[in-house]
């Protein structure tokens, strides 16, 4: 039995450029990963199958297919072997919420199969290429390391980011990335700031983020005004350093000075908003 974690992906900033000929937009984003996420367990079986459980399993019950299965079939094709595994996905993260979700699950699935095979039998580049065919966020989720990403998400540059204490909040809202992009009007564009290699301290990072934004926040707000309520609640917290939406929403994050401040804020917000998904986490 093999167990792997599919951590939540957080876009600390997200700049959108022009639409590309392949239908994607040029992007720039600083991506980090949380210590909360979905879990996958792989066990030997007579064929390939997927079972989904966990608090958000119901949101995927109507899917005819799943990113996990598409990733597994892609791996089988590249490796030219049968993948006789029963995969159990524990869905702990909200679905269609701007924090990776299916992309994180797909990336973790590819990574899991690689862990089972001798390195001399595989070519990492082949599996990285597979990740790119599954979605714009899958490549960075496959590598699972803090990074500055560009292009359609397939240009990945390692970026050293200090440990961050954060609160993640989703108001119970799922958003279609396509719908959010269709509402997009104002764009920062790409190449307007220098690509960072890393940050020596949290203060340096916060200063950098102060001159960035998430271009998808405004269109997401037009579709889901409750995002504004989440941001207002976060910005009213003690010792908050930054509050912003992640990805195409509707999950928002707040960065705090320390773990105690984040945990205190999460507990207070949860007591006042019992229907929101809230997690105190380390990025």
Question: Quick summary of this structure?
Answer:
Helix content is 32%, strand content 29%.
Q: Could you walk me through the main structural features you see in this protein, from its secondary elements to its overall organization?
A:
The chain is α+β, with helices and mostly antiparallel strands and 283 residues long. It has two domains: 2-157, Ribosomal Protein S5, domain 2; 161-282, Alpha-Beta Plaits (2-Layer Sandwich), CATH 3.30.70. Helices cover 32% and strands 29% of the residues. The protein is built from nine helices and ten strands. Strands 1, 2, 3, 4, 5 and 6 form a six-stranded mixed beta sheet that branches. A hairpin with a 5-residue loop joins strand 1 and strand 2 (25-44). Helix 1 (67-79) packs parallel to helix 2 (102-116) and helix 2 packs antiparallel against helix 3. The two termini are 28 Å apart. The mean pLDDT is 94.
**CATH top-level class of the largest domain:** Alpha Beta
Structural class: alpha+beta
Which stretches of 5+ consecutive residues score pLDDT under 50?
none
Number of helices: 9
Look at the structure and give the mean pLDDT: 94
Report the CATH architecture of the largest domain. Answer: 2-Layer Sandwich
Quote the beta fraction: 25-35%
Topology overview:
Elements: E1 2-19, E2 25-44, E3 49-53, H1 67-79, E4 85-90, H2 102-116, H3 124-134, H4 138-143, E5 147-151, E6 155-158, E7 165-170, H5 177-182, H6 202-209, H7 217-223, H8 226-235, E8 240-245, E9 252-256, H9 259-272, E10 277-282
């Amino acid at each position: 039995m093999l167990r792997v974690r599919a951590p939540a992906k957080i876009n600390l900033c997200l700049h959108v450029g022009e639409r590309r000929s392949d239908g994607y937009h040029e992007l720039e984003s600083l991506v980090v990963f949380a210590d909360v996420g979905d879990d996958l367990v792989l066990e030997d079986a007579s064929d390939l199958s997927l079972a989904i459980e966990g608090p958000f399993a119901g949101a995927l019950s109507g899917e005819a297919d799943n990113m996990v299965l598409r990733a597994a079939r892609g791996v089988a094709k590249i490796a030219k072997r049968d993948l006789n595994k029963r995969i159990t996905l524990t869905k702990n993260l909200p679905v269609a919420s701007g924090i990776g979700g299916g992309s994180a699950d797909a990336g973790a699935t590819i990574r899991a199969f690689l862990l089972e095979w001798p390195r001399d039998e595989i070519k990492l580049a082949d599996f990285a290429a597979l990740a790119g065919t599954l979605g714009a966020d899958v490549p960075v989720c496959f590598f699972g390391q803090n990074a500055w990403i560009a292009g359609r998400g397939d240009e990945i540059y390692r970026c050293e980011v200090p440990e961050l204490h954060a609160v993640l909040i989703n108001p119970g809202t799922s958003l279609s990335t396509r719908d959010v992009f269709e509402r997009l009007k104002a764009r920062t564009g790409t190449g307007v700031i220098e690509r960072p290699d890393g940050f020596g301290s949290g203060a340096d990072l916060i200063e950098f983020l102060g001159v960035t934004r998430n271009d998808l926040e405004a269109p997401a707000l037009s579709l889901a005004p409750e995002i504004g309520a989440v941001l207002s609640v976060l910005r009213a917290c003690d010792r908050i350093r930054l509050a912003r939406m992640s990805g195409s929403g509707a999950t928002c994050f707040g960065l705090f000075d320390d773990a105690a401040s984040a945990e205190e804020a999460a507990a207070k917000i949860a007591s006042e908003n019992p229907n929101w998904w809230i997690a105190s986490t380390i990025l």
